């Protein structure tokens, strides 16, 4: 038994130490090693131990074969929402390792676009692309076709996204639900449809940046979470349909990175006014002005509990783009993998309980629920 445990520890430790793999892979190895150690402990017999040893070796071998990365070879990739945050960092990263990057930005005259032009190699081109505007999609498509000629486009990374104004589902205005859907879902669908012919030709990669909130029900995120859940499901169906064309599809479900997605106070002012303008007087009275004005703390809270080091997402997306056999799902970020597992495999009561126990952004209750003392 001790021998088994020792081998597990050494094996797991070495693999983790040696391989700078994307988070997902590292985690799987840890779980496998843990599983194996536990099984060895339970079995307590040489025979059982040997069986588990063989089994784990087989599983680990299976994970690592086909994890080889394809050569970069100046392959062309398109990234939407490159103005800031994950998309911006990803452009710089993929440019640095040698890809030909098409950085699609919401504002070609903005500071993000300017910085990409200034700091990246000459392979990188900045494209104007509001993913909710069909005209701009067409224009970006013809520019990409013209630039790549017959080298083809290897990958499209649907990254552009908005979070909207987090609030109770009852308070979020319809305009806000529709805006989230327009960017996070229909935008990604339309971009994908436009570029799929190029991807089918290259047997390339499609990567959608969804969110942990697309798989884990989280309070205040009714509009955002639903749009991301739609994206996640669509991607899973595309994965099945596109496999016959040789196109591999991956979904990234990050959780908790410090980016501009949490917006500025100007933006919050506008969205808050939008909510107040659309509420009927009795709903407004039930929730109370005080409650509604404190909603903006949620974004501040999210940002405070987020990590500023984006390398786990970048590594995972890089893996999805370059690995011979990329995974269908990646969950970089603190707790993302754990929460997604909880939400997928356990009774609803468990995830509800866990989320209730998490630190809260405020103890404010709707005024109709506060008992007069
Ligand atoms: N940060 C996290 O913790 C986290 C967690 C889960 C999922 N995600 C997802 O990761 C992706 C990237 O988010 P981020 O955190 O990097 O946020 P971000 O800094 O706000 O980046 C999103 C980018 O999308 C752009 N964009 C917004 N609307 C667009 C449109 N209609 N057309 C084209 N581009 C548009 C934004 O442009 P502007 O800057 O000009 O607005 C911005 O550059 C999003 O899909 C988000 O849902 C993030
Ligand atoms: C947020 O946007 C500002 C300017 O719009 C930019 O300077 C900053 O780098 C962005 N932050 C991130 C994390 O992308
Ligand atoms: C960027 O600036 C150019 C030239 O001033 C202008 O034609 C273009 O419409 C601007 N683009 C955006 C998205 O504002
Ligand atoms: C991304 O989602 C869109 C629809 O939302 C879908 O058309 C596309 O195939 C998906 N791509 C990937 C890589 O998941």
Overview of the molecule:
By secondary structure, the chain is α/β, with parallel strands linked by helices. It folds into two domains: 2-64, no CATH class; 76-356, 3-Layer(aba) Sandwich (Rossmann fold). The protein is 56% helix and 8% strand. The chain contains 15 helices and seven strands. A seven-stranded parallel beta sheet has the order 3-2-1-4-5-6-7, sandwiched between helices. It is flat and about 70 Å long. The structure holds NADP nicotinamide-adenine-dinucleotide phosphate (NAP) and 2-acetamido-2-deoxy-beta-D-glucopyranose (3 copies). One 2-acetamido-2-deoxy-beta-D-glucopyranose binds next to helix 4. Residues 84-85, 88, 111, 259-260 line the site of one 2-acetamido-2-deoxy-beta-D-glucopyranose.
- Give the uncertain stretches in residue-range form: none
* Count of domain modules: 2
- CATH domain class name of the largest domain: Alpha Beta
Classify the beta-strand content into a percent band.
Answer: 5-15%
Helix percent band: 55-70%
Dominant shape: flat
Main beta sheet strand tally, sense and closure: 7 strands, parallel
**Whole-number radius of gyration?**
23 Å
Q: What's the assembly state of these chains?
A: single chain
- Distinct ligand kinds: NADP nicotinamide-adenine-dinucleotide phosphate, 2-acetamido-2-deoxy-beta-D-glucopyranose
Mean pLDDT: 85
Distance between the termini: 62 Å
Pattern of helices and strands: HHHEHEHEHEHEHEHHHHHEHH
- Secondary-structure class: alpha/beta
**Within the largest sheet, what's the order of strands?**
3-2-1-4-5-6-7
What is the number of helices?
Answer: 15
CATH evolutionary superfamily of the largest domain: NAD(P)-binding Rossmann-like Domain
